[in-house]
Amino acid sequence: MKIIAKFEGGVAERHILPAFEGSQSIDGLSRALTLTSHYLVTGTVRKKYPFNNMARIYIHPPREGSFEAIYSLFTDKDTVATTTLYGTVAVGVFGAFLKDAIELIFKRIIGSDHKPKTDQLKNLLANRAGELEALGEAVQPSLIRAHSVINHGAGSINIISGSNNIITFNDRSKRYLTTKVEDPTLRQKIVSCGMLNVNTRNGRIFDIELERTVPIRVPREASPNTLSALAGSLQRYSSKKFGISGSEVSISYTIEADQDGVVKRYIVFDAQEVRP
Protein backbone atom coordinates (compact mmCIF):
# COMPACT_ATOMS: atom_id res chain seq x y z
CA MET A 1 0.00 0.00 0.00
CA LYS A 2 1.38 3.40 -1.01
CA ILE A 3 0.39 6.82 0.23
CA ILE A 4 1.59 9.89 -1.67
CA ALA A 5 1.80 13.35 -0.15
CA LYS A 6 1.70 15.72 -3.09
CA PHE A 7 2.82 19.28 -2.30
CA GLU A 8 1.40 21.85 -4.72
CA GLY A 9 1.62 25.62 -5.18
CA GLY A 10 4.48 27.95 -4.25
CA VAL A 11 8.01 26.74 -4.84
CA ALA A 12 6.73 23.13 -4.79
CA GLU A 13 5.84 23.71 -8.43
CA ARG A 14 9.60 23.91 -9.08
CA HIS A 15 10.06 20.47 -7.43
CA ILE A 16 11.61 21.94 -4.27
CA LEU A 17 10.53 22.82 -0.73
CA PRO A 18 12.10 25.09 1.91
CA ALA A 19 14.40 22.80 3.89
CA PHE A 20 13.09 23.60 7.38
CA GLU A 21 9.36 23.88 6.73
CA GLY A 22 9.41 21.01 4.23
CA SER A 23 11.23 18.66 6.60
CA GLN A 24 8.84 19.60 9.42
CA SER A 25 5.86 18.72 7.25
CA ILE A 26 7.31 15.40 6.10
CA ASP A 27 8.25 14.54 9.69
CA GLY A 28 4.73 15.38 10.91
CA LEU A 29 3.13 13.20 8.25
CA SER A 30 5.53 10.34 8.99
CA ARG A 31 4.73 10.45 12.69
CA ALA A 32 0.97 10.68 12.15
CA LEU A 33 1.01 7.63 9.84
CA THR A 34 3.20 5.67 12.27
CA LEU A 35 1.01 6.46 15.30
CA THR A 36 -2.09 5.34 13.42
CA SER A 37 -0.61 2.07 12.14
CA HIS A 38 0.84 1.27 15.59
CA TYR A 39 -2.59 1.59 17.19
CA LEU A 40 -4.29 -0.58 14.55
CA VAL A 41 -1.73 -3.34 15.09
CA THR A 42 -1.49 -3.25 18.90
CA GLY A 43 -4.68 -1.61 20.15
CA THR A 44 -2.65 0.82 22.24
CA VAL A 45 -2.11 4.54 21.72
CA ARG A 46 1.63 5.21 21.92
CA LYS A 47 3.20 8.65 21.57
CA LYS A 48 6.89 7.75 21.85
CA TYR A 49 9.39 5.51 20.09
CA PRO A 50 9.78 2.50 19.87
CA PHE A 51 6.74 1.51 17.83
CA ASN A 52 5.60 -1.99 16.91
CA ASN A 53 7.21 -3.14 13.66
CA MET A 54 4.57 -5.62 12.47
CA ALA A 55 3.27 -2.82 10.26
CA ARG A 56 6.02 -0.43 9.23
CA ILE A 57 5.76 2.86 7.38
CA TYR A 58 8.65 3.63 5.02
CA ILE A 59 9.35 6.81 3.11
CA HIS A 60 10.74 6.74 -0.43
CA PRO A 61 12.86 9.43 -2.07
CA PRO A 62 10.75 12.39 -3.23
CA ARG A 63 9.93 12.50 -6.91
CA GLU A 64 9.26 15.44 -9.16
CA GLY A 65 5.77 16.35 -10.27
CA SER A 66 5.18 19.36 -8.11
CA PHE A 67 6.85 17.78 -5.07
CA GLU A 68 5.84 14.34 -3.84
CA ALA A 69 6.79 12.35 -0.75
CA ILE A 70 5.92 8.65 -1.03
CA TYR A 71 5.12 6.40 1.94
CA SER A 72 4.55 2.66 1.88
CA LEU A 73 3.11 0.18 4.35
CA PHE A 74 5.49 -2.76 4.70
CA THR A 75 4.84 -6.26 6.03
CA ASP A 76 7.17 -9.25 5.75
CA LYS A 77 7.17 -10.43 2.14
CA ASP A 78 6.31 -14.04 3.04
CA THR A 79 3.44 -13.06 5.34
CA VAL A 80 -0.15 -13.28 4.07
CA ALA A 81 -1.74 -11.96 7.26
CA THR A 82 -0.96 -9.63 10.11
CA THR A 83 -2.12 -9.52 13.72
CA THR A 84 -4.21 -6.50 14.66
CA LEU A 85 -6.21 -5.49 17.70
CA TYR A 86 -9.12 -7.41 16.10
CA GLY A 87 -7.14 -10.57 15.45
CA THR A 88 -5.46 -11.83 12.31
CA VAL A 89 -6.45 -10.27 9.00
CA ALA A 90 -5.11 -10.53 5.46
CA VAL A 91 -2.47 -7.97 4.55
CA GLY A 92 -4.70 -6.54 1.82
CA VAL A 93 -7.52 -6.12 4.29
CA PHE A 94 -5.19 -4.40 6.75
CA GLY A 95 -4.15 -1.93 4.04
CA ALA A 96 -7.79 -0.98 3.46
CA PHE A 97 -8.32 -0.78 7.23
CA LEU A 98 -5.31 1.53 7.60
CA LYS A 99 -6.46 3.79 4.75
CA ASP A 100 -9.96 3.96 6.25
CA ALA A 101 -8.59 4.84 9.69
CA ILE A 102 -6.24 7.49 8.28
CA GLU A 103 -9.18 9.16 6.55
CA LEU A 104 -11.28 9.09 9.71
CA ILE A 105 -8.59 10.35 12.11
CA PHE A 106 -7.02 12.95 9.81
CA LYS A 107 -10.32 14.36 8.57
CA ARG A 108 -11.74 14.68 12.06
CA ILE A 109 -8.65 16.52 13.22
CA ILE A 110 -9.09 19.14 10.48
CA GLY A 111 -12.82 19.52 11.15
CA SER A 112 -14.38 17.11 8.63
CA ASP A 113 -16.22 13.81 8.91
CA HIS A 114 -15.63 10.43 7.31
CA LYS A 115 -18.05 7.53 7.01
CA PRO A 116 -16.15 4.27 7.65
CA LYS A 117 -15.97 1.82 4.76
CA THR A 118 -14.35 -1.27 6.34
CA ASP A 119 -15.97 -3.61 8.86
CA GLN A 120 -12.90 -3.30 11.10
CA LEU A 121 -13.27 0.47 11.45
CA LYS A 122 -17.05 0.20 11.94
CA ASN A 123 -16.40 -2.25 14.78
CA LEU A 124 -13.82 0.07 16.31
CA LEU A 125 -16.27 2.95 16.33
CA ALA A 126 -18.92 0.74 17.91
CA ASN A 127 -16.72 -0.83 20.58
CA ARG A 128 -13.62 1.30 21.20
CA ALA A 129 -14.68 4.82 20.29
CA GLY A 130 -12.87 6.34 23.26
CA GLU A 131 -9.56 4.91 22.09
CA LEU A 132 -10.03 6.44 18.65
CA GLU A 133 -10.62 9.79 20.32
CA ALA A 134 -7.38 9.33 22.29
CA LEU A 135 -5.57 8.40 19.06
CA GLY A 136 -6.83 11.59 17.45
CA GLU A 137 -5.49 13.62 20.37
CA ALA A 138 -2.11 11.91 19.98
CA VAL A 139 -1.98 12.49 16.21
CA GLN A 140 -3.10 16.14 16.22
CA PRO A 141 0.30 17.70 17.10
CA SER A 142 1.84 15.78 14.20
CA LEU A 143 -0.75 17.12 11.77
CA ILE A 144 -0.12 20.64 13.01
CA ARG A 145 3.55 20.07 12.18
CA ALA A 146 2.56 18.58 8.81
CA HIS A 147 1.02 21.97 7.94
CA SER A 148 4.35 23.79 8.50
CA VAL A 149 4.98 24.20 4.79
CA ILE A 150 1.49 25.53 3.98
CA ASN A 151 1.94 29.21 3.00
CA HIS A 152 5.71 28.71 3.48
CA GLY A 153 6.66 26.95 0.26
CA ALA A 154 3.45 25.14 -0.74
CA GLY A 155 -0.22 26.00 -0.99
CA SER A 156 -1.63 22.55 -0.32
CA ILE A 157 -0.77 18.94 0.45
CA ASN A 158 -2.91 16.27 -1.18
CA ILE A 159 -2.83 12.86 0.49
CA ILE A 160 -3.35 10.27 -2.24
CA SER A 161 -3.95 6.52 -1.99
CA GLY A 162 -4.24 4.67 -5.27
CA SER A 163 -6.15 6.95 -7.62
CA ASN A 164 -8.05 8.70 -4.82
CA ASN A 165 -7.24 12.04 -3.22
CA ILE A 166 -8.42 11.14 0.28
CA ILE A 167 -7.41 14.26 2.26
CA THR A 168 -6.30 17.80 1.43
CA PHE A 169 -4.36 20.05 3.80
CA ASN A 170 -4.51 23.72 2.89
CA ASP A 171 -4.79 27.22 4.30
CA ARG A 172 -8.29 26.51 5.63
CA SER A 173 -7.28 23.37 7.52
CA LYS A 174 -4.19 25.15 8.87
CA ARG A 175 -6.33 27.98 10.27
CA TYR A 176 -8.66 25.41 11.79
CA LEU A 177 -5.77 23.68 13.55
CA THR A 178 -3.82 26.71 14.69
CA THR A 179 -6.42 29.33 15.68
CA LYS A 180 -8.97 29.34 18.49
CA VAL A 181 -11.67 31.85 19.41
CA GLU A 182 -13.65 31.19 22.59
CA ASP A 183 -17.27 32.31 22.89
CA PRO A 184 -18.33 32.20 26.59
CA THR A 185 -22.06 32.38 25.77
CA LEU A 186 -23.82 29.42 27.39
CA ARG A 187 -26.06 27.60 24.89
CA GLN A 188 -28.33 24.57 24.88
CA LYS A 189 -28.72 21.92 22.20
CA ILE A 190 -30.03 18.39 21.78
CA VAL A 191 -27.36 16.04 20.40
CA SER A 192 -26.26 12.39 20.47
CA CYS A 193 -22.93 11.25 21.92
CA GLY A 194 -20.94 9.14 19.47
CA MET A 195 -17.60 8.94 21.25
CA LEU A 196 -16.41 9.45 24.84
CA ASN A 197 -13.15 8.95 26.74
CA VAL A 198 -14.03 9.26 30.42
CA ASN A 199 -10.36 9.41 31.46
CA THR A 200 -9.47 12.40 29.27
CA ARG A 201 -13.03 13.83 29.47
CA ASN A 202 -13.01 14.30 25.69
CA GLY A 203 -15.31 12.87 23.07
CA ARG A 204 -17.52 13.65 20.09
CA ILE A 205 -21.22 14.39 19.62
CA PHE A 206 -23.31 14.30 16.48
CA ASP A 207 -24.76 17.75 15.80
CA ILE A 208 -27.87 17.45 13.65
CA GLU A 209 -27.77 21.13 12.66
CA LEU A 210 -24.16 20.96 11.44
CA GLU A 211 -24.67 17.42 10.05
CA ARG A 212 -21.33 16.29 11.41
CA THR A 213 -19.67 15.16 14.60
CA VAL A 214 -18.07 17.82 16.81
CA PRO A 215 -15.35 17.26 19.44
CA ILE A 216 -16.36 17.94 23.04
CA ARG A 217 -14.54 18.48 26.31
CA VAL A 218 -16.11 18.13 29.75
CA PRO A 219 -14.31 20.44 32.20
CA ARG A 220 -13.83 19.49 35.85
CA GLU A 221 -16.36 22.13 36.90
CA ALA A 222 -19.14 20.51 34.87
CA SER A 223 -22.19 19.22 36.75
CA PRO A 224 -21.67 15.78 38.36
CA ASN A 225 -24.12 13.98 36.08
CA THR A 226 -22.62 15.25 32.80
CA LEU A 227 -20.32 12.34 32.04
CA SER A 228 -22.88 9.70 33.02
CA ALA A 229 -25.56 11.31 30.83
CA LEU A 230 -23.16 11.44 27.87
CA ALA A 231 -22.11 7.82 28.50
CA GLY A 232 -25.77 6.77 28.50
CA SER A 233 -26.32 8.56 25.21
CA LEU A 234 -23.27 6.82 23.75
CA GLN A 235 -24.54 3.41 24.86
CA ARG A 236 -27.93 3.99 23.26
CA TYR A 237 -26.29 5.48 20.14
CA SER A 238 -24.00 2.45 19.71
CA SER A 239 -26.73 -0.12 20.35
CA LYS A 240 -28.71 1.33 17.43
CA LYS A 241 -25.75 0.87 15.08
CA PHE A 242 -25.03 4.55 14.71
CA GLY A 243 -28.68 5.54 15.02
CA ILE A 244 -29.55 8.92 16.50
CA SER A 245 -33.20 8.55 17.47
CA GLY A 246 -33.52 7.45 21.08
CA SER A 247 -29.97 8.46 22.03
CA GLU A 248 -30.55 12.20 22.42
CA VAL A 249 -29.11 14.19 25.29
CA SER A 250 -29.57 17.88 26.08
CA ILE A 251 -26.28 19.71 26.65
CA SER A 252 -25.36 23.14 28.00
CA TYR A 253 -22.15 24.27 26.37
CA THR A 254 -19.88 27.04 25.13
CA ILE A 255 -18.08 27.13 21.79
CA GLU A 256 -14.47 27.09 20.61
CA ALA A 257 -14.15 28.05 16.93
CA ASP A 258 -11.37 28.91 14.49
CA GLN A 259 -10.86 32.46 13.24
CA ASP A 260 -13.29 31.80 10.38
CA GLY A 261 -16.05 30.91 12.84
CA VAL A 262 -15.98 27.17 12.09
CA VAL A 263 -16.88 25.24 15.25
CA LYS A 264 -13.91 23.30 16.64
CA ARG A 265 -15.19 22.08 20.00
CA TYR A 266 -18.06 22.28 22.45
CA ILE A 267 -17.20 22.74 26.11
CA VAL A 268 -20.00 20.83 27.86
CA PHE A 269 -20.95 21.98 31.36
CA ASP A 270 -24.11 19.93 31.77
CA ALA A 271 -25.93 17.05 30.07
CA GLN A 272 -29.38 15.64 30.69
CA GLU A 273 -31.04 12.60 29.14
CA VAL A 274 -33.92 13.43 26.82
CA ARG A 275 -36.87 11.21 27.66
CA PRO A 276 -39.64 10.51 25.13
Which regions have little confidence, pLDDT < 50, spanning 5+ residues?
Answer: none
Number of separate helices: 6
Indicate the radius of gyration in whole angstroms: 19 Å
> Overall 3D geometry?
globular
The secondary structure category is alpha+beta
Mean pLDDT: 88
Widest sheet, order of strands: 2-3-1-6-7
**Biggest sheet features:** 5 strands, antiparallel
Percent of residues in β-strands: 25-35%
> How many strands?
12
Tell me the span between the first and last alpha carbons.
48 Å
H and E string:
EHEEEEHHHEEHEEEHEE
Fraction of residues in helices?
25-40%
Counting structural domains, the number is: 2
Concise summary:
This is DUF7946 domain-containing protein. It is built from six helices and twelve strands. The protein has 276 residues and is an alpha+beta fold.
